[in-house]
Amino acid sequence: VSSAEAAGREEAMKIRELKETALYVDDLERAGAFYREVLGLPRLAADERFQAFDVNGRQILLLFRRGASVQ
Predict the structure, then answer these.
(1) What is the pTM of this model?
(2) Which of 16, 32, 44, 55 can bridge 51 by disulfide, Cβ–Cβ 3.0-4.6 Å?
(3) 28, 63 contact by CB (below 8 A)
(4) Position 3 confidence tier, pLDDT thresholds 50, 70, 90
């Protein structure tokens, strides 16, 4: 592989931004409270399995209760 080809591959694989991040937590209520109250993220949706937060209008943070996404 030439250096030009390698450079092209690196550029093609460069992450520019992430739209969603998912975290699995043991205590969904406590984790959700942290992101709402401490970090000030607005909650977009929630149920007993997950909570979704807006991150600066550009990303979504998803919190899942550990084990709930396989139900």
Answers:
(1) 0.73
(2) 32
(3) yes
(4) low
Residues 45, 52 contacting (CB under 8 angstroms):
yes
Helix (H) or strand (E) holding 45: strand 43-46
pLDDT digits (tens, 9 = 90+) for 31-57: 999 999 999 999 999 999 999 999 999
Q: Report how far apart, in Å, the C-alpha atoms of 37 and of each of 2, 20, 29 are.
A: 51, 20, 12
Alpha helices, H only, 1-71: 3-12, 28-33
CA 64 to chain centre: 10
**What does each C-alpha distance from 34 to 25, 51, 52, 59, 61 come to in angstroms?**
12, 12, 13, 17, 13
Name the residue among 64, 71, 58 with its Cα closest to residue 20: 58
Q: What is the DSSP letter of 9?
A: H
